[in-house]
Each structure stands twice: as structure tokens, then as C-alpha cells.
Amino acid sequence: MSMDKNKNIVVIVGHPDPDRNRYCYALANAYLAGAHQSGADTRLVEIAHVDFPILRSKAEFDSGSPNQAIKRAQEDIYWAGHLVFVYPLWLGTMPALLKAFLEQVFRPGFAATESKQGQPWSKHLSGRSARVVITMGMPAFVYRWFYLAHSLKNLERNILGFCGIGPVRALLIGMVETCGDAKRSDWLVKMQTLGQHGR
Question: What is the domain partition of the chain in residue ranges?
């Protein structure tokens, strides 16, 4: 483990398909390669390969005990100084499996704790930064300016920001299915460069 927490990076692949030939996995691996070149310590979480149940009640969310796979993911996130989320845009938002994973991981007691009535919640993950990488079939500018990147803003503000993670930077990769191999290679180079700089 690096003694410098800022050099500890966790990459979370949020694609629900376990097929590692998906482009999201290539993006994640490119980032990891760049991070390794800079001497960072890294961990990889692939939610398609994490076994966990879906939360079905507020009581379970508030006081249920996460299983060992979720506890390991929480340990990875707590260890990290920088988090990278890579996932596809499905129906205008993150895939359901990624949302279910975040509900399991960012539960009360780990991510934040409710303070006295009327007081802000105590944020337990302050001091960490994040990068969110979203692939999509539409042009990225359409998602950002016409749809106002609403699901990205929800992740930034209501999940990551709520527990103290910031700054949160985003990389939107549009037209991913039709952009061609050359453009896809350019995005991989971009990801490797981001990994080298830990951003």
C-alpha cells in the first residue's frame, strides 16, 4: 500500500455485462496502465463480478449488514484517495446494477452519519476525489446541454458529494458505438494520460 493516500486509486467498472471485451473495461484498463506508470497503487472493482443482493427496504439500507463482497468494496473505497467510475449510459442514467451497488456500498455509517436533528450529516469520505467516465450512444454535447447531464449531476451531488467526495471530474464519451476504431483508440490514450496524472 502506498504511504501517500492520494496515490491510492480504485477504478470501479459499472458495466453490468461480465464480458471484459466491453469498451468500458478497455477504458478502465487504460487508466490503470497510466496510474501504474506514475507509481500509484491501484485496485479494480468490476461490479458485474461482485455478488450482492438488491436492497428492498429502508430498514435494510439503514441497518442491514452488507455481505463480504460489499465490505471488500467499502474497504477499497476507504483505502483510496481517488475513485474512478466507468459505466455506460442506459435509458438516460446509470445501469440498474451499478445503482444497486452504490446503494449497498454508500449506506449510513460508512458514507455518512446522521447528526442531531437539524444538523448536517457527518461526511466520512472527505478528502477523496473522483473521476466519472460515461460512455453513450448519443453525442456527448446532447447529453450535457439538452438533457443537462442529469444522471451525472445526481451522482456528483447526491451520492459522491453527500459523503464528502470532491472534486468530481467527468469525461463523457459520445457516439461510442459508431465513432470508429481510431476515435476509440484516442479515448484510450486520453484515459491512460488521466491515469498518469491521477485525475
Answer: 5-197
Q: How far apart are CA 166 and CA 151, in angstroms?
A: 17
49: three-class secondary structure by DSSP:
helix
Neighbours of 118 (CB within 10 A): 5
The tens digit of pLDDT for each residue in 119-165 reads 667 888 999 999 999 999 999 999 999 989 999 999 999 999 999 99
Q: Which fold has domain 5-197?
A: Rossmann fold (3.40.50)
pLDDT in tens, 10-31: 999 999 999 999 999 999 999 9
Length of the chain: 199
- Other beta carbons within 10 angstroms of residue 187's beta carbon come to 19
pTM to 2 decimals?
Answer: 0.93
Q: Could you tell me if 30 and 188 are in contact, meaning their C-beta atoms sit under 8 angstroms apart? A: yes
CA–CA separation, 84 vs 168, rounded Å? 9
